[in-house]
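Worked Example 4.2. Consider the chain below.
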Amino acid sequence: MLENKIVTGILSYGMSGRVFHAPFIEVNLNFELKGIVERSKKVAQERYPHIVSYDSVQELIDDPEIELVIVNTPNDTHVEYALKALSAGKHVLIEKPFAPTAGEAKLLFKVAQDMGKHILPFHNRRFDADYLSLKNIVVNNEVGRPIELHIRFDRFKPQIGPKVFKETKRPASGVLFDLGSHLLDQTLALFGKPKAMTKVRGVYRPDSIVDDYGCIILNYTSGLNVYITTSLLVANPQASFVLHGTNGSFVKNRTDVQEAQLIEGMMPNNPAYGIEPEGMEGLLTTPDEEGNLISKFVSPEIGNYMGLFDEVYETIRNDKPYFVTKDQIIWQLEILEPNK
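Applying the procedure from the previous section yields the following structure tokens:
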């Protein structure tokens, strides 16, 4: 047993709690999973017999042993529950979207600062294998100066989904907040704040009342244009990353295996976790010394969502700057806000 573990509670055991949070807190030696809120079905203890199953959010927040609260409840409750946890003297790890508006995000950061606590955005997809491959291409200048980048998150879900908070008009609803926030975060992490933005939302599924299509075009002073697209009506998903630069192109499909492995029950300390099968390589095309275009496969990186929890620990225990900055969250929400 390590000393100075972060005792952690999770506010929900839906998909995000079951897949993206509990397995990592359970096996990371720097954390202790104390308990999970389960209002009706009490199933978390079947997998984690040692935990407490709380009946309400308030009951978990009131537990004096819990130091870190993971807010992974419906989007429109993030601000309310984060404020409650901060006011109770807890650190907070908050799911995307961080808040419905930039103003509410600024409030959360201010309250956290006033309380001497950390509020940390949960942007795990910076640890996706496919994104890490793109990042390496950009950082290593493999295609020269970036000119055009297309980032997509495609799904085919023509029917209205069972999650009411995703399918009803409420703060931070719709596919841009749900999936687009991932793509915006990845873009801002690589290239910073854009100089201009154009945004399109669409509602195309029968009986839908929230946007199920979104496109955001970001223009940068360097000349780079980024096209972010997410849709619930793409039956043939396209490449998730298509980058063109002054010296070549890079194409990568959305191939990260972590979510599928976690849904199947694989724990993140399994040696096979995050390793993509053969055939998932990206394709890099650049000219040789004679100007002939040569294409080569780029082996995928190993996906590693555990890296996020390691960053959380370093920030809380050692005051290391967190990998997602306050400015990046504010920029993201300024773009996502419906009236912008």
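Residues 196 and 219 are 5 Å apart (CA to CA). The radius of gyration is 20 Å. Compare this with Example 4.1 before moving on.
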